[in-house]
User: Which sequence fits this backbone?
């Protein structure tokens, strides 16, 4: 077996993973990132976000040759035309994706081979708050449920430990459960 095959686990190059961790431990300034998204209203509830450049490892990262495009909208019942997932659904996607990636990375670092990682997320919301009909319900989710099904070459206890460790390391889980300050600036004209 080649060296490359031995260091790639669950599609993750663990040699590179540990190298990145060591580099950040040696120089914490490498850990400062700034991700960016630009959004533009199209029509009605339809808007489009583009994502490309970001700052990482003390420099502007230009490795992405093309931008990612994500459309958003609302279902008809909320006056939209289903041009994309609504923002609340996008939040569920971000949470699922971050937790899943964290699970894969933690398992790879712990030398566990995964067979499958699947999740179902639900977000319960009383839209009266967001619609301004009633000030009592909060504007966002009242509760988010996450259910994972994880299989791999480890006993159930080890796979549960991987999921728990991933939960503790997931950036989006942290943002959702602890909140994050948002600075809002407006320019008109």
Assistant:
């Amino acid at each position: 077996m080649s060296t490359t095959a031995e260091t790639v686990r669950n599609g993750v190059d663990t040699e590179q993973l540990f190298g990145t961790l060591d580099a950040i431990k040696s120089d914490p300034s490498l850990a400062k990132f700034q991700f960016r998204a630009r959004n533009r209203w199209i029509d009605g509830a339809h808007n489009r976000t583009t994502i490309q450049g970001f700052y990482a490892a003390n420099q502007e990262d230009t490795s992405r040759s093309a931008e990612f495009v994500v459309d958003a909208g609302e279902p008809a019942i909320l006056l939209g035309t289903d041009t994309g997932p609504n923002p609340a659904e996008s939040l569920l996607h971000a949470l699922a994706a971050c937790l899943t990636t964290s699970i894969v990375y933690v398992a790879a670092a712990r030398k566990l081979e995964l067979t499958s990682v699947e999740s179902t997320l639900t977000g319960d919301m009383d839209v009266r708050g967001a619609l301004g009909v009633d000030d009592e319900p909060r504007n966002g989710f009242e509760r988010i449920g996450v259910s994972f099904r994880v299989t791999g070459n480890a006993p159930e206890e080890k796979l549960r430990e991987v999921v728990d460790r991933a939960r503790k390391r997931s950036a989006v889980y942290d943002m959702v459960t602890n909140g994050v300050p948002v600075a809002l600036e407006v320019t008109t004209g």
Notes: DSSP finds six helices and ten strands in the chain. The helical segments are 3-7, 14-26, 87-109, 128-131, 156-169, 171-178. The first strand starts at residue 8 and ends at 9.
